Amino acid sequence: MSRQPTLKQLRYLISLAEHGHFGHAARACHVSQSTLSAGILELEDVLGAPLVERNNRRVILTLLGEEVVQRGKNVMLSVEDIVACCRAAAEPFNGAMRIGVIPTIAPFILPGLLKRLRDEHPDFRLFIREDLSENLTEALSRGELDVLLLALPYPVQGVDEFPLFEDEFLLACPKGHPLVSLKRLTTEDLKGADLLLLEDGHCLREHALEACKLRDSDVSVPYQATSLNTIVQMVANGIGVTLLPKMALDANVLLGTEVQVSRFSETGITRTVGLMWRRNTPRQMEFRQLGAFIREAQRQVA
């Protein structure tokens, strides 16, 4: 039987590709530089082909080396999934999970959710990364995250989506704004309004406009913010109106302001909040259990 690469050898090569330096890669793997270098030489010997071009200035992977790195990442990801699957089968919420959450959900759901998880599953470790949807989905595909909590749909391949609940959009206006006095508020009333939105890259912007059947050209956007808290302060100072998700209102995002909120007369002015994970992951059952946990926690808040 022919010799085969070891997981350790593949991990050394992947680390070298990521850091571009033997010393930095060795430190990331918690081994000496000589150990890492020897492991990669052994890998080249096993495969019978050079994977790395070495000189005094920099490290360059050969074309074959780049291919081995990419396939090696898939191998390492599969091994991690096997380990996680066995842990989850032994007892749900008893290991570790890396979750990515978008900024327009994280501050409004996580505080209560984390407290309840600690109370009911003290051995469960949840590692959280807050970032934009684009960055999170890329991290998910690279295996850096296990599951995402975000607004759906989001266009990405090779994943499964698990809707949890609908999060209603409400209109927030400065005190005494003309839109507040309308007895029957419709999305048509927003056309031409000074609508404050998050900057490009935040999916809340697209989902809010889509829910209200609006295009950018339908509204005047005097200011683009990076957070809902900033937008609330702009509304409070009379610069415009905005669309706020109900979960933010439930978390008292308007506390200390005189901003007034109105509900639309139409139905379906919502965004869908859900989970996303890599298709074919063996942890689907565990992620669905997490989804049920989040759904129940939100039901108690509503």
Automatic annotation (TrEMBL):
InterPro entries: LysR_HTH_N (IPR000847), LysR_subst-bd (IPR005119), WH-like_DNA-bd_sf (IPR036388), WH_DNA-bd_sf (IPR036390). Gene3D superfamilies: Periplasmic binding protein-like II (3.40.190.10), Winged helix-like DNA-binding domain superfamily/Winged helix DNA-binding domain (1.10.10.10). Belongs to the LysR transcriptional regulatory family. Keywords: DNA-binding, Transcription, Transcription regulation. This is LysR family hydrogen peroxide-inducible transcriptional activator. SUPFAM superfamilies: Periplasmic binding protein-like II (SSF53850), Winged helix' DNA-binding domain (SSF46785). Residues 5-62 form the HTH lysR-type domain. It comes from Chromatocurvus halotolerans. GO terms for molecular function: DNA binding; DNA-binding transcription factor activity. GO terms for cellular component: protein-DNA complex.
